[in-house]
Amino acid sequence: xxxxxxxxxxxxxxxxxxxxxxxxxxxxxxxxxxxxxxxxxxxxxxxxxxxxxxxxxxxxxxxxxxxxxxxxxxxxxxxxxxxxxxxxxxxxxxxxxxxxxxxxxxxxxxxxxxxxxxxxxxxxxxxxxxxxxxxx
Length: 136
Description:
By secondary structure, the chain is mainly α. It has one domain. The chain is about 50% helix and about 10% strand. The protein is built from four helices and three strands; from the N terminus they run βαβαβαα. Strands 1-2-3 form a three-stranded parallel beta sheet. The longest helix has about 35 residues.
């Protein structure tokens, strides 16, 4: 790994990181967890890491990504998945330490309800306007 990634993002040499003592390649990891906001899990970690080296792999992702990753849970290529804010809040509940994800669930739910109200309002106005103009 040091040949491919000699330094971390802070400029520390990979060999100086205690967490990587004894880790020469991905085979040396007993567990990998990826926090992702892109396609790193399904296009990179699973085919080039987990499938090749067979380490237990889990991840956390944005809510819109989670449905794309469910098949990997079913095939056991992922051993766990925190899908979006709800997944993070579920994890906080399981470990008994409510945090920012748990606190964020109520505002997110209210926001979703407001969006639904605006959609209903917009559709109502649209159809009322069409009915008045006789185009319905």
